[in-house]
Every structure is written in C-alpha cells, then in structure tokens.
Fold:
Amino acid sequence: MRFLILVFIFLLAQLVNAQKKTVDQRVDSVLRLMTLDEKVGQMNQYNGPWAATGPLTNDDNLLTQIKAGKVSSMLNVTGVARTRELQDLAMQTRLRIPLLFGQDIIHGYRTTFPIPLAEAASWDLEAIERSARIAAIEASAAGVHWTFAPMVDIARDPRWGRVMEGAGEDPYLGSLIAKARVKGFQGRGLGNTDAVMACAKHFAAYGAAVGGRDYNSVDMSLRQLHEVYLPPFKAALDAGAATFMNSFNDLNGIPATANKYLQRDILKGEWKFKGFVVSDWGSVGEMINHGYAKDNKDASMLATNAGSDMDMESRSNIQNLAQLVKEGKVKLSLVDDAVRRILHKKFEIGLFDDPYRFCNEAREKEQWNNQLNLDAEKDMARKSIVLLKNENQLLPLKKAGGQRKIALIGPLVRSIKEHLGFWSYDWPDDSIRITSLWDEVQKKVGDSKLLYAKGCNINDSSKVGFDEAMSVAKDADIIIMSVGEARDMTGEAKSKSNIHLPGVQEELIKAIMATGKPVIVLISAGRPLIFNWTADNVPAILYTWWLGTKGAEAIADVLFGDYNPSGKLPMSFPGTEGQIPIYYNYYNTGRPATSDSDRFYRSAYIDFSIYPKFAFGYGLSYTSFNYSNINLSSTSLKSDQKLTASAVVTNTGKYDGTEVVQLYIRDMVGSVVRPVKELKGFQKIILKAGESKTVSFTITTEDLKFYNNDLKYAWETGDFEIMIGTSSKDVKTAKLTWNK
Ligand code: NOJ
Structure:
C-alpha cells in the first residue's frame, strides 16, 4: 500500500512538473517568435480610455497601438462588454497575445467591503480571506484578471492617507492579513476563472514616507526594512502572490522603481519570486522628477535593469526600450526575462487557451447583487467595528417598545455613498441599493419616534445648524451622533497635517453634550483621527471606519445589540499629531518614561502624554473579559524545546462575546535593541456570559528571531517576557529564560 502511495505521489509530481514545463515551453515558443518591438509591447501597460487614477497621457491612437501589439495590459477597464471589445483588438495582433486587464479591486467590486484597515480591525483572517474571495469572484466575472491588491505597506503614520488601504502598523498581523488576502484573491489558484492575480504593493517601504506625505522619500535602516516593512511582502509571496508593484518613493536615495537591491537582490534573487513586477502609475517616468533619471529613456533603462518588468502609464518602455537594447544599454536577456514572466502569467490564467474566458455575461449577471456576497459583507462590516468607550453600559440600545425618542444628529446620518470609502466603485443605482444610518435605525426602532438634524457639514466652519441640532437634542431622550471624515479624505494623495475630526464637528458634539442628554458618537473615517474632547467626555463611542455596502446595517446591528462588537485597533491612535509616529513596538531608549509623571530628563514630551489615546490592539465589547492564571509550561527552556503559554480568559459580563486574545513577547537583551513588545500570536475566541476558557499559545525559537546587525535572521539566548492580554497596553506578564 505504502509503495502504491509513493508511486502515486511520484506520478503526481511528474505530472505537475510536466504541466509546469509545458507552460515554460509554451512561453518560450511564443518568445521565439517575437520581435524586439513586440517584446517591449509586453512590458507596457496603459490606462483604459474610460477612467484614470493619475495624470493621463492622452493617446488618440490607443486602439491602434493595441492592434499593433504595443500594449500588454490595460488598467481600469472592466465589464464583460468593454474587456471583450479591447481583447478583440489584441486578437488582431500578429501573435494574438491576449491583453491582461488589471484594476484596483482594493475592497470589493460591486459589493464594497469595509476599507482594508477596517477589516484588519476584525483580526479575523477567515473573514478577510472571504472578503477578498468575493471581490475576486465579482471582479473576475466582470472581465478583470488582476487586482492591484493587497496593499501590504506597514503604516505608522495616520497622516498618510493610504493607511486606509493596508492592515495597519504591525508586521505580524500585517503578514497574516497579506496572506489571507492573497489566498482570497487567487482562490483555488490561477487558471480558475473566479481567481484574480494578486499584486503585493508597494514594494517597498512606501508606508514610511517622511512626514506621512504621500509619495515622499523614505530613509530607513536595512534592519528596519527587513524587520518591519518587508515581512508582509514575504508573506504575500509565500501565499503565491502572482505579481508585485514597485512604488513611488525612493528608498535611501534610490527610487523603488529602479531599486536593484529590492527587486533583483531580494525579490527575484533571495526570495526567488517567479511572477512579474509592475511599476506604479507613472513611477518610471517620475524618476526624472526624483532627479534620478535624466529623461524618459534613462528612466526606462534604470527601471528595467533594476527588475521592473511592466511600465504602468509612463510610456518610458514603449518609447525607448527597443532602442536601449540596440544600444546595448539594456541586455536583451533582461527584456526576455521580463517578457517571460508576463507571458507566463497570461498562460497560467488560461488566456492563451481562451482570451475571452473571463468574458461571460451570464456569470457577470449572477454576481450582480448576489445576496450571499452582501451577507458576507455585512458580517465583515460588523466584525470591523471597534467599541472605544461604553460608560455605564449605555450601549446596546433597546429596540422598539416603551421606547424613548432617539435623535440622529451629524453630517453623516443620511450619507449613502460615504459608506463605500476611498478606492471603491460608484454605481448608478447606489442611492437605491445602499441605505443610510437613518434608514437602518428607523428599521430597528419600529414606531418609536426618530428625530434628525444635520448640525454641520463635514469640513467647513459654519455653525448655522447648531441651534436646530440642539433643540432636536433637547427634545430627545437619547442622541446618536454620526461624524467623521468624507470618504475622499483618505486614500491616495490624501495626506493630512491635521487629523482632528474635521470642521466644527467636535464643537457640535460639545454643544449636544451640553444638553445633558446621553450621547453616543459614531466616528467614520479611513484613518485614526484625533478627538480628545469626545474621547474624554462622551460616554459611548464606536469607531466605524468606512464599512461598505451594508455599512449602515452593520452599525445599526451593533447599536441595538444584534451584534456584540469585537474589533481591535490595528493602529495606535495618537492624542496629537506631535506624537506621530506612534506605535506599540517601539524601542525602550536609555531613558524611558515609565508614566506621564515621569518626565525628568526622560524620553517624553514636556507638553503631552507619552501614551497613544487608544492603543494598538484595543477594543471593547458589551461584555467584559478578565485575564488570569498566566502560565508557562517551563520558565527555563533549551533551544529545541517548545513553550506553551496560556491564560484563563473569563467572560465576566452579561452578554456572550468575542475576544481577541493577544500574545506579545519581549526579548530583554539583544545584540541589537529589541522592541518593548512584539505581537507573536492571537486567538479570536467566543465566550458565553460567565464562561471561562484557557487560551494556549505554542512558542518556539522561530518566534524569537530578528534581524541582527549583520542582517542575519536569528534568535539569541537570554531572558524573555511573555505577555498575554486584551490589548498591547493591557497584558499579564510572565518571565522565562531560553538557552542553547
Ligand atoms: C497609483 C497607486 O499608487 C497604486 O496603488 C494603484 O494601483 C495605481 N495607481 C493604479 O490605479
């Protein structure tokens, strides 16, 4: 029997190899037929004639260029009809090489899911994978082959508008989420028509732009790059990400787009990445502005030599690369390598067998308003909400019956499209298919009377609506305020120097609080905002991000107790912009402040707290959890041993609830200084009211590794602290020694 199994495995391996070979051989057979111009055409990507996310180069003869084989891929072209139209043109080229259609499917297509940062707050990898899966199913049914996602940039600066696209500040959580998203997008694997190719972006360190200003320079040690910024990319690659996108920033003086160290040495060298790298929008040509390339030709040479395979919208390759090869400035072998990588993916997803296999009207229709997708979206949205404060158990609210008058006040109460957040698609029927908070609260309270006042706009200084809002508030028994950012205040090119609640919204909150009525504040935003007065004075606060198509339903479910919130912050919330960057895994320094009263020649601010307003990993529930009996299987371990660390978590409140139990480790002494704590595990558990569970984590020396000063990834013997708790700030600690 064993023999038969071995034979079977051997044959299977042969078959897989044979198939792989076949793709390689087929790629080569096409490559052999290609002229240099046709090869360069494969390294060129244009924006579709219908939409743009950056400065667009208008090409009257775009369609002619496709027919001439000068275009490999298009972005921002979706829908079966449109993709078919353009694919028809590609089928008129000499070699009939199909076009690839790429699109920013960042958090859903027709069904918009919560913004990625919100999803990260769920700490729910299965739900996040499902969200990406559904996005892929819907997008692929609309002719899309490739998403420019996940964005896996670690972000420690909420001024940077693109924090909304990622998983927050932590490399461990970020890596698991990167993997979940890649798995979700690519589903059962490339070649299935419901899979889209993932694209890990932006390689690399884009999230560390100086001052949180988008597109800005990045200057960091290689150790920090490897330890904090690269792990999610590696995780995406290990999960099979088909493509990578390089980035706009320079890294230590070399633009990422022409960064050999990143693309050739690490990605394609050490990590053995077999897919292809697309540039960011215009990032090849922008190297002229960086002062790194002297002209577009130079830019094409630098990018290609450094391992950037496809040029998005710069026209640098298409205009210069053939000439560069002729002049010997770019080796033909590098062009061949890039083209091979691109063709390989086109083969893998089956386009050479059937260029129209993603063009199926019936399938496209089936995914339009698919109820299962919408249900999954609502589930994801509820899981993403973070309860920041709930004094005297003001929440959840009672539904209909002997009910008080509820007032809904604020500029976002009646919003529809805002729920979709940045990087989402507007559809003509959005105002019908998406509901507002007003609609959903109304459904919950039946005939109870609802009152409304807008109070103010999101972002201006007018207070003309305050009086009306206050009189509505006075007439109500309880007030729900919906405030925050507009959906386009975060996202690409949406950096802000001031991240306080915009406009006069916090003043409106103060005015309403002055009525003495109980107030609940909902904050919708794409980044951590600053709202200290609200945080200190309002009894109940929910952070609701941008939650997508079913966002309002999800919020209403949480408000009225149909769902007990369990989200945990994936980023630290600063109390002032001056604290930024603020993150939980910092180094202790030689003069750490132990509290806010410990300021005498300490690493602290003389005018502000050392603490974030809300810590990484923080989030409440309608119930309460107690952590006790932290236990280690041993306090003195040897290298090959495993440690089991556990704690007893008890639901001490009166609701059933979900808790994200977090494990942090601190390496007390290292050959380079180590963070005060690092997330190394978490478990999301459900506890009935009164129930206790022992939550255990297995830890090995793998979990202790870090990049030392020689960039070697290794662990060092010595003392460690193991912390288990409900947030990065609230943990129980045990100590141990680990020796060789
Ligand atoms: C620029 C953005 O940086 C990138 O993330 C996006 O995929 C491209 N534009 C295409 O829209």
